[in-house]
Amino acid sequence: MALRIATWNVNSINSRLDRITGWLRSAAPDVVCLQELKCTEEAFPAERLRELGYEAAVAADGRWNGVAVLSRLGVQDVATRLPGQPPYEGVVEPRAVAATCGPLRVWSLYVPNGRELGHPHYAYKLEWLRALRAAVAQDAVGERPFAVLGDFNIAPKDEDVWDIARFEGATHVSEPERAELAELLKTGLTEAYPRALKYDIPFTFWDYRMLGFPKNKGMRIDHVYGNAPFTAAVSDAYVDRDARRPGKKDQPASLAPSDHAPVVVDLDL
Known about the structure:
It is built from five helices and 14 strands. It is α+β, with helices and mostly antiparallel strands. The chain has a single domain (about 1-260), classed as Endonuclease/exonuclease/phosphatase (Deoxyribonuclease I, Chain A, 4-Layer Sandwich), CATH 3.60.10.10. Helix 3 (about 120-140) runs parallel beside helix 4. It starts with a strand and ends with a strand.
């Protein structure tokens, strides 16, 4: 059974809906984990996506968060928050949603940014990662193919950012964040690392400013981590850079790119 799954921080699903639906038609993934929806659950474009054959499990509140799992295999056993997920400023944010899609169990994750070292949001990020580790531990050692996909807001190694000197004293590359990610992998998860296409390091994010994408000033912060049955089935993995390309200057706003590109993984189960 050949399956294609993907993760993509879309940076506002309704603002980029034509770009997203066009990509779904061309890439034809069976399961897609989306982050940063920036809409309420009521405003989520479920009907447009249903027309393309996708059911959706959604957790969203209209702010800068929001996550979803789209599936052409159905969605069952939906969970819309991590067990034990910590709040931030009294709010349990919509940063995680899980669903069983055919033979797969997946989590779509939008890990907190952290903002800056010493900020309360940074402490929240570390606490959130610890909750994630506890939440996935059982599935990670199970016999069913299982993966956590999303925007982790962590570059695991120095080479995963375009210039590590520019990130001195910043989030995304700090040792506590990387240590929490390493602890997550100890539950039994392994990365489906994307193969290099145009560049040696398959970056997944490029800032809109300072010609970040044309100059490849990127970061590798979107990841796919699977358990042993999942990673044993991986036949290919890559970053779809074409989905990040700006396109024509006179194109409609709904065709503008996200600042992230999809990470695509092909499976042969």
